[in-house]
Specification:
By secondary structure, this protein is an alpha/beta fold. The protein has a single domain, classed as Rossmann fold, CATH 3.40.50. The chain is built from 8 helices and 10 strands. The strands form 2 sheets. It has an 8-stranded mixed β-sheet with strand order 1-9-10-6-5-2-3-4, with helices on both faces. A two-stranded antiparallel sheet has the order 7-8.
Amino acid sequence: MCSKPETADRTKSGKGNPVPENTLNDLTGKEWIKRTKSWFICDSPRYHRNRDTELHPARFPEEMVAQFVTFFTKAGQWVFDPFCGSGATLIASLEQERRAVGLELAPRYAEVTRQRLAELDTDGIAQVILGDAAELLKLDLWEDCIACSGGRLPQFDFIITSPPYWNMLRHSRGGVHSVHKQRAEAGLDTHYSDSGQDLGNIEDYDEFIEAVGSVFDQCQKLLKPEKYMVVVAQNLRVSDGYVVPLAWDLARRISTSFSFQGERIWCQDSKQLGIWGYPKVFVPNYHHHYCLIFRNDK
C-alpha cells in the first residue's frame, strides 16, 4: 500500500511552507527529498474496487500516479496521459487538485473513464478524448480539448503514462493458474483490443519500440519546455525463455527526443507469486516497474 502523497495543504504553524524559489511543485524540502528515493512500494487499496475498472488488464494505481503528479506539478497545472486506459491518471490528478486530459484508443475504456469522471465533481477540469496516440499532432484531435485555445496544440505541464508492454498481454505465462488465466475465466479482458492501431498487437519487437518511440516524439511537442514526463515500463520474459529489456530499450529510444533524468522503481509487494521455473530454471517474478523520468530540454 502506498504512503499517502503530501499535498499543498500546510500546517498553520508554517513549518510546512514551501520556499518561494520552488517553481516545480508545492512540496517542502523535507517532502521533496523523500520523493527522490529511487524505489517505493505501492499496492493500491482500490485496485479491485469495481468490475468496470478491473476490466482493463493492465491498469496502474492512482496512488502511484499521485507520487509523481505532486512532485512534477503545482496545484492547478495540466497533466496529460496519451495511453489513458481506465483513467487512473485523470482521477489521481483531480484528487491532487490538478487538471488533466487523457487519450484512449479503445472506446470501452474511454467510456469507463468518462463514467468515473462523472462520479466526481470535475468542474470541467478533466477530460478523456477518444483517439489514436500515433496521431497526437493532428489538430482535429484536439478541437474540443478543454486544455486548448486558439486552434493550437495544447501545452501540458506534465505527462505520465504507461504504454503497452509489447505483446505481453496476449501470452499466458506458464502452466500454472496464472492471473492471465484467472482473468479469462472471470470474463475480464486479457488484452487491450484486436485493433490494428493497438500498439500491443505489433508482433515485431523493433517495430514496436519504434512505434512507441514515435508517440513520445510527438509528446515532446505537447510538453512545455523544461517540464517532465514519466513513462512506466517493465522488462519482460518471453515464451522463448529470455528477457526482453523493454524498459531500457524504451529509455534509449525516448532519449532521442527527451533528456533522460533517471528512474524510480515502483514495487508491488502484494502481487501473487508464480512458481514459474521450479525445479530447474530461474524465472523471476516481476513485481517491479521502471518509472522512467524524462525532461523536455528542447
